[in-house]
Amino acid sequence: MNNKKIYLIGNAHIDPVWLWRWQEGFAEVKATFRSALDRMNEFPEFVFTSACAAYYKWVEENAPEMFEEIKKRVKEGRWAIVGGWWIQPDCNIPSGESFVRHALYSQRYFLEKFGVMAKVGYNVDSFGHNGMLPQILKKSGMDYYVFMRPGNHENSRVPGNLFWWESPDGSRVMAYRIPTGYGTSWGEIDKKIEDTMRIAEEQGIDLMAFYGVGNHGGGPTVKNLESIKRLKEERYGDALIMSSPDEYFEAMSERCVDLPVYRDDLQHHASGCYSTVSEIKANNRRAEHALLVAEKFATIAYNLVDLPYDGKRIQRAWEKVMFNQFHDIMGGCSIKDAYTDARDFHGEALYTAADVLNSALQKMSWAVDTMGDIEKVRSKEKDWSLWEYDDCGTPVVVFNPHSWKVKAPVIINRLVKGVTDDRGNPVALQKIRGPQTNGRDDKWNTLFVADVPAMGYRVYWLYLNKEFEVNSKGSLVADDTSLENDYIRLEIEPHTGYIRRLYDKKNNVEILSDKGAVPVVIDINHCDTWAHGVFEFRDEIARFSDAKVKLIENGPIRAKLRVINKYNDSILRQDFILYRHKPDIEVEVKLDWREKHKMLKLSFPVNVLKPKATYEIPYGFIERPVNGEEEPGQQWIDLTGEQEGMVYGLALLNNSKYSFDIKDNDMRMTVVNGSIYADHFGVRDEFCEFMDQGIQEFRYALIPHKGTWQDSFIPRKAYEFNVKLMHVQETYHRGPLPQKMEGIKISKDNVIATVFKKAEDGNGYILRCYETNGVNSDVEIEVPALKRKWKATFGKCEIKTFRIPEDNEKEITECNLIEF
């Protein structure tokens, strides 16, 4: 007699890309769906469960007759739609807004095509799950979550197989960890059911058992279903239920409200996948930001200058980005050819973003009145590049995509002698080397620092021959091994290229306890691509050294030291940059990597006691122990502790890296992972190919701070570091727009607006904001161009989505992430 019930979930885990390319995955989706429909005709009690909106769209477009069959099975309740996302992504690497887009586009697709939305989040094979997912799931219409990794051997703190998973804002989903795998391969399922029943009896709770051939699709077989029929008749009777995750969770919700609560992310599985295939991760970051920026300015241009808004085109680009976030693609564990395809997908998305953005910026800049009081002639009498007339200057419109005022560098592809702002105030400039080598003298560009309103623009004026006296505040001093301003001093050790000293002059703090920016080579010969079962990478075998240090820039705005060091045939070039007006150290890196079965980390031992580590995760942050385990992070990590009676810390920003570890006070960023492509503990031979060989470029920054990272606006700085100001060099024209425009005002620094777009249904605008610092906040938000102002209350780490009707008589309302 069995006291517990087992809900049998017929499914087919399909990797659209892994040891094959997407075209093969496409064919497998169709074959598997056809097989599931065949089984339904043969076994009236069979229920099939399937996720991933992308797969349904493939079938809709390529096999429409089968799609109609699926619609009928969904309607009668025998085909369960779960997941609510585009595919089953890596759940650490994508940004917070990427997860929102998975739900936004997929849930609306499911509702349109099938009349239902997924209630169950479903990522059975993803390699870990960030701690903000409960809020994102809940606000996307999903109350439940199914996952399998990490297993109990990887994270024994997870309280059983059924529990409440809670994010920092207090959102909860009922989560289920699959105890016996998501499939049954080709064998009998007797043992799977027996093992699941044993666990159910031990835990005193009903469980789900997943069956069906997976990975390369297939799904439940005739033999599976015949075995289930036999087991029901001979042994288990009504204790076996042919079912769906929805039915299971509904039953558990009625009976199991007193479940344990888990408040953390779900790690670790496949820690190597945080760093494998640098290119896919760098392109993901670029594409995510590029689409959000394009969308913002397309929306602003729609409102200000009547530029048509093509939301469907933007969605198609997001679909390419979301597909590349599939866990075996973004996780860097697929075959090499898959990354050629991924590059093409990202290329399409990045081009779309660039085209949409360019149309918006050009339409707006063309509408700015740059003629002024003097009627200027548009004729290139003076210069082949700039439209300057009679020493009146040439306008350049600088745009800021962020929801706060930004002061940041702008590089103009021309050497000029003077720059002023929109009011004629002189601005400091610097001659810098450009990317061109055109003739004898045309190899120089101009750098200046712009101060641009939030989500707006400002006109600056470039002068070919007029020079201005600028009273630059503060000092900036550089020599062959050091950079120094009023805030900080950086010293490089000449023979190694390491940071010898990083000194905070204002607070009298030695920031590092030992050498910094040390390139540490780690042995990973014992790891497969995923680094299964490996949680720390600290088998140090060498360090880059034999350095050359050279001062390559030294001007009134910034100075730059170039450091080149070597290890074997690999070369690391780091350009350390210090600006006059801030204490932050920015570093531009070019790495030529030739190592196999080795990993490269950059080490920064922070001079603090009682260190506390914080990592950015999608739409939030998380504190983790300083135990040396490899951890996923996003645009920033931070180590803060005690220093001479004060709270002090160092934040590390990056523009394309996701893998870090902190042991005690040593903060490390994983730069490159020289594993074999798709090596699953296989027999290695001379045909194996190694990832990340050759040149890659990226940037990072060091942000020292007195007080907590919240006090120093680290999330804002990370966004500014990843998304630069952009500009359009213009000519003279009349127009309805002023030379300076502010697009948004948010009264609290800890609330960031990440999304400004047209609503999916075309009814008004969507503004999405989130709280960055983990504190409750009452906020006033204003969008001047829409003539709208309102108040809102944010909980800690809360994401809020506002619908702003175009009719100003209608009220602004909060909606969920899928805009309902």
From TrEMBL:
Highest taxon listed in the record's lineage: Bacteria
Any matching Pfam family: Glyco_hydro38C2
Domain Glycoside hydrolase family 38 central: 268-346
InterPro entries the record matches: Gal_mutarotase_sf_dom (IPR011013), GH38_C (IPR041147), Glyco_hydro/deAcase_b/a-brl (IPR011330), Glyco_hydro_38_C (IPR011682), Glyco_hydro_38_cen (IPR015341), Glyco_hydro_38_cen_sf (IPR037094), Glyco_hydro_38_N (IPR000602), Glyco_hydro_38_N_sf (IPR027291)
Gene Ontology biological process: mannose metabolic process; oligosaccharide catabolic process
Keywords in alphabetical order: Glycosidase, Hydrolase, Metal-binding
Listed PANTHER family: ALPHA-MANNOSIDASE 2C1
Family the UniProt entry places it in: Belongs to the glycosyl hydrolase 38 family.
Descriptive protein name: Alpha-mannosidase
Organism from which the protein derives: Caldanaerobius fijiensis DSM 17918
